[in-house]
Specification:
The protein is built from five helices and no strands. By secondary structure, it is an all-alpha fold. The two termini are 33 Å apart.
């Protein structure tokens, strides 16, 4: 739980600047949910479970979006309930820990994408 809050804090701090400064909590939430689903897709590829996804090639675009939203929504809501925006605003970490955590987060994201690509090519 502490790790989840720290990762959310890192994303919240990153998205508090630039073009997303108005919606940093939503952006951080989307980024964390994206990482979680990245790992779910890695597991699905690894265990040949891609057929578990609720997609049908014959569905129209709107129905595909609705199915995808229904697939993503549970994790989005759970993470949103576990980590509140107020907690992120009030969080205070040492600057050295934030810099180190940010570096590890970037490395983690690159390695996760690399693993996904390797699994996709192998499968």
């Amino acid at each position: 739980m502490k790790l989840l809050k720290f990762v959310m804090f890192l994303f919240y701090r990153y998205y508090s600047k630039g073009g997303t400064f108005r919606i940093p909590y939503f952006s951080a939430l989307c980024a964390v949910v994206f990482l979680i689903y990245l790992h779910i897709f890695q597991l699905l590829i690894l265990f040949n479970g891609i057929s578990l996804l609720p997609m049908n090639p014959n569905d129209n675009k709107g129905l595909k979006y609705i199915k995808l939203a229904g697939f993503l929504l549970p994790v989005f809501l759970i993470i949103g309930l576990l980590v509140k925006e107020k907690e992120l605003k009030n969080a205070d970490y040492a600057e050295a820990k934030v810099k180190r955590g940010g570096m590890f987060l970037v490395i983690y994201i690159v390695l996760s994408f690399s693993l996904l690509m390797v699994l996709a090519f192998i499968a």
